[in-house]
Design goal:
Structural class: mainly beta
Number of strands: 21
Largest sheet: 5 strands, antiparallel
Order of helices and strands: HEEHEEEEHEEEEEEEEEEEEEEE
Strand content: over 45%
Helix content: 10-25%
Strand order of the largest sheet: 1-18-17-16-15
C-alpha cells in the first residue's frame, strides 16, 4: 500500500472510529430463525469484509472493496475468536485494474482449499472469477466468465456446487435464471430457470443440494434469505431479517455451515452507520 492509500485508509478508519460506538438497535427476524451471535467489524477489518463471506468450518473468509479508493481485499478469520489470521489487501492483479478497470471483489465461496471470488470491472462488462489459496490468500487462477452478455450488470456473487462440479452466479438485477459453469474450466454449462424473478442478489452458497441467496431490499432494512431448489428452480423465502440502522443497511454475502453453537446461516450486513456485522442464525424447527 502506497503513502496515499495509507493516508486515505487512516482517514476512513478515524471516521469509522467516531461511529463505531453507535448501535442502532436489536435485529429482528422471522420466527423460523434465531440470531445466535454477531460480530462488529470496524476500521480496515470492515473495508475488506463488506461484500462476501464463506467458511470451511474452521475459518471465515471475507471480501471487500472500497472502489472509490481502489481498495479490494480478502481476509481470513478464526471462526471461534474472529481473530484475523491472514489478509490479502491487493486482491486484484494490477493488469486487470489498470487495463480493464477491475475494482470490485464481490461474493465468495469456499471449496477444496480455494476461495472462489466474483470480480467486476467499472463498466460491469468483463466478469471474472479469481481463485485464492486458503492458507495464504494468494491468487491462484483468473477465469474470464463468458459469454459476458449473460451477466449484463456484472457478477455480484458466485457459489460452488462441489457435488455437481459447478459454479453458479447471476446478474444483480431482475434475475430469471441461475447460470451454471464447469468448476474446472469455467466454461458455460447451462441455466436453471427460476420459478419467479428475484433481484438484488448479493451472495450465494450451496448447502445440502440447496442454493441459498442473500437478497438486499433496496429501500428497506428488512432483507431476506431465499432458497433455490437446484433440481427445478423453485424459489422460496427461508426467512426475513429486519436490521436496524440509522443510515441504512445493505445485506451482503451469505454462507451456510452448521457450527457447534447451532448457527447455520452466516450473513454479512453493511450498516452504513457503524460498519459491518457478521451475524449468525440458527434455523428453528416449527
Amino acid at each position: 500500500m502506497n503513502f496515499f492509500d495509507t493516508i486515505i485508509s487512516l482517514l476512513m478508519s478515524i471516521c469509522m472510529l467516531l461511529t463505531g460506538f453507535l448501535d442502532s438497535g436489536t435485529p429482528k427476524s422471522s420466527a423460523n430463525v434465531e440470531l445466535v451471535k454477531e460480530e462488529k467489524l470496524l476500521f480496515m477489518d470492515a473495508m475488506y469484509s463488506g461484500q462476501g463471506v464463506t467458511t470451511d468450518g474452521e475459518y471465515f473468509y471475507t471480501s471487500g472493496s472500497i472502489t472509490a479508493f481502489g481498495l479490494a481485499g480478502i481476509m481470513k478469520w478464526d471462526a471461534e475468536t474472529m481473530e484475523c489470521v491472514a489478509q490479502n489487501t491487493d486482491a486484484i492483479p494490477d493488469e486487470y485494474k489498470e487495463y480493464y478497470g477491475h475494482d470490485h471483489v464481490g461474493g465468495i465461496s469456499y471449496y477444496n482449499g480455494k476461495i472462489y471470488a466474483a470480480v467486476e470491472n467499472k463498466a460491469e462488462d468483463y466478469p471474472l472469477v479469481i481463485t485464492y489459496d486458503c492458507e495464504t490468500l494468494e491468487m491462484i487462477d483468473i477465469f474470464n466468465i463468458e459469454p459476458a452478455e449473460l451477466l449484463p450488470d456484472g457478477i455480484p456473487w458466485c457459489a460452488v456446487d462441489a457435488e455437481k462440479g459447478l459454479l453458479y452466479c447471476s446478474p444483480f438485477h431482475d434475475v430469471e435464471s441461475i447460470l451454471a459453469f464447469d468448476l474446472e474450466t469455467m466454461e458455460f454449462s447451462h441455466t436453471i430457470e427460476l420459478s419467479r424473478m428475484v433481484t438484488r442478489i448479493q451472495g450465494g452458497e450451496v448447502y445440502d443440494g440447496i442454493l441459498y441467496l442473500s437478497y438486499d431490499a433496496e429501500s428497506s432494512n428488512t432483507d431476506q434469505i431465499l432458497t433455490v431448489d437446484l433440481s427445478n428452480g423453485n424459489v422460496e423465502k427461508l426467512c426475513s431479517r429486519t436490521v436496524p440502522s440509522m443510515a441504512g443497511n445493505e445485506a451482503e454475502g451469505v454462507t451456510i455451515y452448521p457450527m457447534e453453537d447451532g448457527s447455520l446461516i452466516h450473513v454479512l450486513d453493511y450498516d452504513k452507520t457503524v460498519g459491518v456485522y457478521l451475524r449468525h442464525y440458527k434455523v428453528v424447527e416449527e
